[in-house]
Amino acid sequence: MQFTWIGYYTELADKLLPYRNDRQALISKLRETYVQIDMKFPKLDSTDVPADIDPFTVFGLFNKGLSNANRMKIAAGFAHSFGIKADQPADFDGIPVVMALNATFYAFTGDKRRGEHDIDNLWRVFEAQLALADNDNEQTRAEFVSAYNDAVTQFSLGWKLSMGLYWARPLTFINLDSRNRWFMGDISAAGPTVAQVAPKEKDTPIHDGEAYLAICDTIRSQLGTEACPYTSFPELSSAAFDESERVNKEKKAASKKTEQEAQANALGDADVETTHCWLYAPGEGAGMWDEFYEHGIMGLGWYELGDLTDYASKEDMRQKLLEVRGGGTSQKNSAHAVWQFAHDIKPGDVVFAKRGRTEILGRGVVTGDYEYDADGGHYPHVRAVEWDAKGCWHMDEMFAMKTLTDVTDYPDFVAKIEAFFEDAEEPEDEPEERAVEYPPYSREDFLSEVYMDEGQYDTLVGVLGSKKNIILQGAPGVGKTYVAKRLAYSIMGMKDVQRVQMVQFHQSYSYEDFIEGYRPSASGFELVKGAFYTFCKRAAEDDGNDYFFIIDEINRGNLSKIFGELFMLIENDKRGVKNKLQLLYSRELFHVPANVHIIGMMNTADRSLAMLDYALRRRFAFFDLKPGLATEGFREYRDSLSNPKFDALVQRVEQLNGAIADDESLGEGFLIGHSYFCNMEPDECDDAKLSAIVEYELIPMLKEYWFDEPLKVRDWSDRLRQALR
Description:
alpha/beta, ph1033 like fold
């Protein structure tokens, strides 16, 4: 049953009115109540004991950001203290709440914003509203309007006053908080008449009591109609809350999806599927391994959840687990496992069955999508797997204590497990490795995504093809990282992620990370091959295809130390098997294949970094990436947003770039790039988003650029802000 609180709230208002002229007694009763219910009395004034109090603030004590359990606890205490006979609330549907840090309806004592008669005015409004609700006539309306007009402009009131009026008499006075205003402004939600008279979400508060009563009257007259099917203000308020929560949840999910898509596509790999490797426990203590192996499946417990496809998010799964299993643990790991089992595992992925924390039982390839078997007992969640090995192998390192673990990002660990199966007995029908069809990616695709003209692209590809090694250099935000992988893909004609690898240099990066070096192991030290060595070996076995090794922040590392003897071997005319040098540790004769291209990226505006030494400079071509604000692609993007303030801001940044280019201490290497303004949809390109770019990204950069010219920083900061006004 909904709205069980109406009778209680109405009677509490009646019980409070006699304290209008004895507020100290009311304060004492409130403090005593908090002692009885064993809760700390909240801070309601500049001192521990408030000097005065109004009735709306009393309601606010349990209509703010508290758990429902604590709200009911306070309500029960008030029922006892004030002798309330009405049933205590079993729900709080349709009740607006105030912010916990702004729960009083007055300014604290000593605050200059508090008027001498502020609390008296609130009591006067309270008394007038009860009189009007009990006997609606010309006189009670006039007294209410007068009291409302005197109080509404006081500090911290405005729309909040309508919330207080609604608490005390929810069937007579409408709540006009932001949720209700937003909801009632929608013709489809409450009808055209309500939408016409209701204040809009961004409107300023109504300072005229007569206008407020007119809104209440008009909306009340529409209740129960076909256009506005709600039968009372509480029902309307509850619908507004439910709908706003639904929309907010959808917006949050959409925002998260957009963010995830942007992250996935930051390097151009959003539509590329890769084979994942999973470590999997077939039942508690691997007790289901033999059965799963025999039936060619992998199964998962958590039968209480039912069909996993019924859940929209991982959080929904977690909440259901908390409900059915209790709140002893967070259930985050469990929710993560079942979500991955239903959504992340794909046909073609490799599964290693395990027992305990050191034992491998078998290997298989996933061949089917997620299925829910309602008759599957404790393991109703299944996927078809073609198991191709079974046995018992022990690892010298411990596994994670989880049912399902994605180990794709640990290639050394995966290689150690795979080594167990090299000499295993061949199965009768060994499954073939899944043939991956990589998405095509052409020159046209590159030009549609990257703000670069055709001439620049052709020059870039030509230089990389002849020199083999290139450094993309430019100011922050010109899209160096965004360009790098897409450039490689456009040359390959497809998004073959197996032929592209990216690393990032830093001060601690070394030859041992890049080529080879000794690392601690269980038996002492072992020689471990580095990223570039492994990449070159893979490229050498596929010399008919181009391979691309991408180095982000190339000038942050100690390049002579990292490249070592490869200084010579990376030159375009020193490639191939005829040009070998002996490596430092293994003494292996090593060469860099001719089909390996190196793409480095360098930030020209980072003054903390030294320039590359000339020995390495001679081996790289340097290509300047400039801001793409004036390119045809960016102009099309601007037009798609259709936002005058965005256009004005971009125009101002172009002017700023002119000033930066003309500055002798800066120059073109410090221009502001276009990526600060990318990846926005029309509905999210609002004032708050643009202001955040200016305040938290552009202005801090200007302060660094012109650290010794504060007047110039202030001037351009003001110009950027003015573009948004």
